[in-house]
Write a structure and sequence with these properties.
The protein is mainly alpha-helical and 207 residues long. The protein has one domain. 50% of the residues lie in helices and 2% in strands. It has a two-stranded antiparallel sheet. Helix 6 packs across helix 9 and helix 7 packs across helix 9. The radius of gyration is 17 Å and the shape is globular. Bound molecules: heme C (HEC) (2 copies). The site of one heme C (HEC) has 19 residues, from helix 4 and helix 6.
């Protein structure tokens, strides 16, 4: 089984490490490095090729042509189950940086190309319906457990930075949701696309 055929990226010297997070996230991910991320973050402990005994869905179900934001939604959904399993095994939540996320996305065959055009109107409805405002503020209104969503530090420029932020924060969000008796929200295919599109528009400086 070969990863998707991306042109091999040649990294020269330490140049890669000199690039800031934003710029690095915009560099196309590399599927071979993504495979290494998949192993080093322990994903491969639970996700193994079909036919082998694994705790999670088979690797083939994770690796398929999909949108970047679609996969972000799948990762979001996945957090509570993984959180519990890792805790049982005494393992730490594996942090994923934006460049690592770009590589992981490439390995799992996710690309922005496969995400549909966002429906920002639907995105507004999703923001409310998923209960984000029970904890977060949006234009000053909402809860105070989380941050003001129009001021997201990652800046909504890159879905990869969004995905990495969501990944790093999801265990803490899940803990808060449990404590507050809020159902951890789940996303289907296009909902994360619409929500991200709506938030990006809302956070954009006025023209
Ligand atoms: C401790 C075991 C475990 C580890 C480690 C693990 N997973 Fe999972 N994963 C699961 C289980 C169980 C499911 C099915 C339940 C669910 O979706 O929450 C799952 C489901 C998924 C899904 C599908 C979600 C959906 O419904 O579409 C994705 C994508 C995924 N994992 C990615 C990853 C990635 C990436 C990593 C490494 C950063 C990882 N997993 C590490 C156990 C694990
Ligand atoms: C139960 C409470 C809760 C819910 C519901 C919740 N969040 Fe959060 N969220 C938090 C908390 C708490 C943090 C801060 C986590 C930390 O840094 O420790 C956070 C952080 C974030 C961040 C990072 C903020 C930044 O500036 O870095 C984003 C983005 C985010 N949440 C998006 C969402 C979205 C989108 C939804 C709805 C789909 C949502 N959250 C639902 C509690 C929640």
């Amino acid at each position: 089984m070969r990863p998707i055929r991306l042109l091999p990226v040649i990294l020269l010297g330490g140049g890669f490490f000199a690039i800031g997070m934003q710029a690095a996230a915009e560099t196309p991910g590399d599927a071979e490095r993504g495979r290494a991320v998949f192993t080093s973050k322990e994903c491969s402990r639970c996700h193994v090729p079909r036919g082998q005994q694994g705790i999670g869905p088979a690797l083939e179900e994770l690796r398929r042509r999909q949108g970047t934001l679609e996969l972000t939604g799948r990762l979001w959904n996945h957090a509570p189950a993984m959180f519990v399993l890792l805790k049982q095994e005494g393992l730490e939540w594996p942090g994923i940086t934006a460049p690592e996320m770009a590589d992981l996305m490439a390995y799992l065959q996710a690309a922005p190309l496969w995400d549909p055009i966002p429906n920002v109107f639907a995105g507004h409805v999703i923001l409310v319906r998923k209960g984000c405002l029970k904890c977060h503020r949006f234009r000053g209104e909402g809860g105070s457990v989380g941050t003001e969503l129009t001021k997201f530090q990652g800046g909504y420029k890159s879905p990869i930075i969004w995905a990495a932020t969501i990944w790093d924060h999801s265990p803490r969000m899940a803990t808060h949701a449990q404590r507050m008796g809020i159902l951890y929200p789940r996303f289907t295919g296009e909902e994360m696309v619409d929500l991200f599109g709506f938030l990006r528009n809302a956070a954009a400086p006025p023209q």
